Amino acid sequence: MGSEQQFDRLVDEAWEGMLEREPLVGTFVGDERYDDRLADPSEAGRAAEEAAMRRGLEQLAALDRPFAGVVVAFPIGRYPAPTERGRLLDLPADELERRISERTDDMVQRGVVEEAREATQRGLSRTAAQALGLDEFAHLPLDEARDRVVLRTRRYAAYQRKWMRRIPGIVLVDADRSTEQVVDAIIDLARSR
Question: What's the predicted TM-score (pTM) here?
Answer without folding.
Answer: 0.56
